[in-house]
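User: what does the whole thing look like in 3D?
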Amino acid sequence: MSLQVRTMADMMASGETPEILFWVGCAGSFDDRAKKITKALVKILNHCKVNFAVLGAEESCTGDPAKRAGNEFTFQMQALMNIELLNGYEIKKIVTACPHCFNTLKNEYPGLGGTYEVIHHTQLIQDLINTGKLALADNGTFKGKKITFHDPCYLGRANDVYEAPRALIEKLDAALVEMKRCKTNGLCCGAGGAQMFKEAEKGNKEINIERTEDALETAAGIIATGCPFCNTMMTDGIKHFEKEEDVKVLDIAELIANAADL
Amino acid sequence: MQQILFGVLTLLSFGFFAFNLRKIAQNIHLGQAINRSDNKAERWRTMLLVALGQKKMFSRPIPALLHLALYAAFVITQIELIEILVDGLSGSHRFFQDSLGAFYTFMISFIEVLSVLAFIGTIAFLARRNLLKLPRLNMKELAGWPTQDANLILIMEIVLISFIFTMNGADEELQSYAGNSNGFAISSWLGPILFDGKSTHTLQTLEQIGWWGHIIMVFGFMNYLPYSKHLHIFMAFPNTYYSKLEPKGQFTNMQSVTNEVKLMLDPNADPYAAAPTDAAPARFGAKDVTDLTWKNLMDAYSCTECGRCTSVCPANTTGKLLSPRKIMMDTRDRMVELGDYKRKNGPDAEDGKSLLGSYITEEELWACTSCNACVQECPVNIDPLSIIIDLRRFLVMEESKVPSELTGMLTNIENNGAPWQFAATERMNWANED
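Assistant: Here's the predicted 3D structure for the full assembly of 696 residues, as structure tokens:
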């Protein structure tokens, strides 16, 4: 089944208002791996008949990496342009699969005139399941599998969202195993603070290798994440240890789409 | 004579302490304004839980319990200090003993038990530092003075507790000669063991040594604090009260930048108009402690260099130069240096040094992943990340010193609204791909 995606401009032209805006984010739009997460989430939204829209070509970087890199000018240029667009469309509620977009939209836009209800996609999916709109098929995909969850810093510590992703993993017929550093003590994947876009400073180890070791220690067959950047870092870590055959790195949206036979 | 001596000593101690407190207040005021007067109920709650209740200490139970023993002993002993002050000034002996009776015995016993626990805690802390060589207590930023400072405090605590038991123990032995007993939990059996058969004169001397030694140590300790990392015992309270209450991921939006960006985006703005009255600050971001907020500077005074932040820092644990604890230690050292310089040479005097450059290097700043682990971990809610980001802001916006790969990322955002080189028109491609 092809994906049903409409843009805000399209909806506006036909006088319709979506319930929620899906903020796809740059990774979700352009990164080949992250695009799969985007599509998994859209499958879920389509399946649950959620009335949503995307900004499409009108979407632009939230400015998060610029702000973390210390360039407040570029951040605020992006923020003010996005806010003008979002306010123009009278957006009330936003969902995103990127914790960096989530944090910036939720916490840093209100001070610049953009106040929205912003949720992470794991929270939306949890809500869809809790309200009975999404049922997981009993297809045994994850039966007997061990899944560990890597907390994205900008979802966990930055915004205290620890439970929604875990509640979803527990809904799968699988065992959730925690890494020794998890939740408030979770170790960063190494991508935050604009590190994604540069080489690491001189050290004796890459941070994603350290974190992948934590994950491998749990003997989980799946490392679940909720962030496209964490996904990249953990995937690279797994490649480093040549464990691609045994360990998969998947977003929660992908796990759920899979379990719901979508 | 002794009372006069005691009175003078007390006055000098409190006077010198007040003098140093004033310097600390002045140094904190070197920082920029930030409003932390909102949400008073939440602030009191945070202070009660985090400072008084030591909530965050308990993520590591063993040091938390050892620390609790020292902390409780310290707080409760303050009650006994009231009596010492009264006795010292009036020449009385155990002023409250008769009037309080059994409660007095209970109080002193309680203090004695806590003191024993504190003694054990102190020994354990010395062992952790010097014998077990706990990594976070033996890092390079602690070489020299910080290590001596830490050991000195612990030794002072041992001496202090020893004086308490010398005093109470000698007193107990004296009482037993008259067929009495103070009945205190520890000294009633420890006294006879330590001082069995000593002459009345020796015991009286020992008690005096204990009493004077104790109070001199207390005064000495109090006046040592302003020079020491141990100042956290006071600063923990205001520092947690003035904690950042917003989500940890929320960074400040710089108002000065907003003004300029709005002007840039406004098609009707007159580019030649006179600068608005709330003109842009002298500098974007922070180069020196005077560019940081007073809360950043209060954070620096609250740091007791425990290194929990550094032990959880992903950059530090993978061998990078960054240590959040060093950021706080550098901030304090620079603040004290600049404060002293300005007191000597006038408020506008500049010494040609700065926090960024003279103390903190660019390499340290660029190692940060902004993951907030250090902020989460700090038992007194210090926020090293906000200093790191403000220093980065200066590097990027004032000096254009950006790692080259980041220049590319920033240019891409400015040109095509994404950190990578993709056109906006390609944003929906995923919807039509397999």
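In plain terms: The longest helix of chain B spans residues 145-177. Chain B touches chain A through 68 residues (CB under 8 Å).
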